Amino acid sequence: MTDTLSTAVSHELDGNALLDAYRTMRTIRAFEERLHDEFATGEIPGFVHLYAGEEASATGVCLHLDDRDAIASTHRGHGHCIAKGVDVKAMMAEIYGRRTGSCHGKGGSMHIADLSKGMLGANGIVGGGPPLICGTALAAKQKGTGGVGVAFFGDGASNQGTTLEAMNLASVWQLPAIFVAENNGYAEATSSTWSVAADNIADRAAGFGMPGVIVDGFDFFAVHEAAAEAIQRAREGGGPTLIEVKFTRYFGHFEGDQQTYRAGEVAYARENLDCLKRFRARVTETGQVEAARLDAVDAQVADLIDAAVEEAKAAPKPTAADLETDVYIEY
Ligand SMILES: Cc1ncc(C[n+]2csc(CCOP(=O)(O)OP(=O)(O)O)c2C)c(N)n1
Ligand SMILES: [Mg+2]
């Protein structure tokens, strides 16, 4: 049975929690918009896939997580990393390929990981994350930690056998796992309306005997509420949930994508649907947070991103000798 959540109440979040949520979403947005500009200079090696527009998903889910919990991410992973608490400066240095980076500059954008934060890694393999989460969720269940595993994956990844097998296994073993399908409408240039053989990815949950929920991904509060229910159920032994979060990515599939396959939708979403604008309007209208406090967060985040870029550019690159370290377990 698939339910639709489009609005939700925010009464469980006090002013400080709302500010935390806003700070996380603003940090992701500022990080990504800055990377968009910096990538164009040619200084950043490798591929970069930006998460801007999708901030409410990572933030709304990860706000419920703590040190017991682990997440698996995708090639579009910066938002998941930031929301799970990975150091923003270390992430920026990693993307610039510097020794001070989260993986000592050897991974780059698509391989940022920080096991100390329960961030199991961005992943260049589409559909690579869900099976990992079965492992971490099984470990949590066996050890009785109360922890959960969350797999973020895209609409394209939702068609991968690895994802479907992981959902089946999670249900058979009643694992504390949450599958978050981030449906941004495209897998590279292929529309999900063309490639996903169902009206909704969440409808597939019924085939695996787990609840499926569809959420407006531009609405932080809707994501937060759906995630609260799924995570609580998982922690209490109630098994996995599939949450489909629907939205639009603001940039191309990768930086450099000419996006000839779409027109107009990004401008519309930025103007009318944007998660940060909606969040600000809601919490200021209800009087939960003053606009000046949100402005202060914007300024602090801008300073953090400036410093992160400046320090990343000044940091040393790995040397040839570094090739032989961190090959197996050191980090
Ligand atoms: C197993 C595998 N197949 C194909 C690719 C090439 N590829 C990289 S990203 C991508 C599209 C993924 O789309 P989606 O899962 O919707 O994530 P999004 O990029 O929209 O966030 C593809 C096909 C890959 N990296 N791995
Ligand atoms: Mg997609």
Automatic annotation (TrEMBL):
InterPro entries: DH_E1, PDH_E1_Alpha_Subunit, THDP-binding. CDD domains: TPP_E1_PDC_ADC_BCADC. SUPFAM superfamilies: Thiamin diphosphate-binding fold (THDP-binding). Its cofactor is thiamine diphosphate. Keywords: Oxidoreductase, Thiamine pyrophosphate. Gene3D superfamilies: 3.40.50.970. Residues 24-320 form the Dehydrogenase E1 component domain. Pfam families: E1_dh. The keyword ATP-binding does not apply. This is Thiamine pyrophosphate-dependent dehydrogenase E1 component subunit alpha.
